[in-house]
Amino acid sequence: MGSIREELQVFVRRFGLLNASCCDECCGEQVSMVQSHILFEIRRMGQPSMQQVAEELGMDVTTFSRQAKGLEGKNLITRQVSPDDRRVNLLGLTDGGSEVLKKIDRYMAATLERVFSHMSGFERDTVVRSLELLNEAVAKAGDDASQQEGKIACCN
Question: Membrane-spanning residues where (predicted)?
Answer without folding.
Answer: none
